Every structure is written in structure tokens, then in C-alpha cells.
Amino acid sequence: MTEPTWQKSTYSEQGSACVEMATPPTTIHIRDSKTPSGPHLTLRPAAWADFLSDVGRRSTRR
User: Fold this and answer.
1) Residue closest to 32 by CA, chosen among 17, 14, 54
2) 47 has pLDDT over 60
């Protein structure tokens, strides 16, 4: 298995306390840039889409 290509949001600038994600064809991987060799979340694309949708709904309620 090859290592996924990780990327940060452009909003994170050059800091090291960021959320990074990798998007191989069938999964979404999420990790903390402070511990790149540590654990990471692996989600199905549909679960990631549901999460983003829920976050978007919650942010508009404020």
C-alpha cells in the first residue's frame, strides 16, 4: 500500500497545528499535522460529505 498524498488547507498558512487530508480514490484520510505518523481517521466519501454538510448547517445557525 502506498502512502497517501497529504495536503493542508490554504487557510492554515505555514503553521504546524493543522488538519491534513488525503483523498485516495475510495477513502478520505484525516490527520493532525503535529503528529503525522500518529493515528488518522479513515472515512468513506459519503460519510465525509455528511460531516461537511452538518458542519455547514451548524455554522449558519449562529
Assistant:
1) 17
2) yes
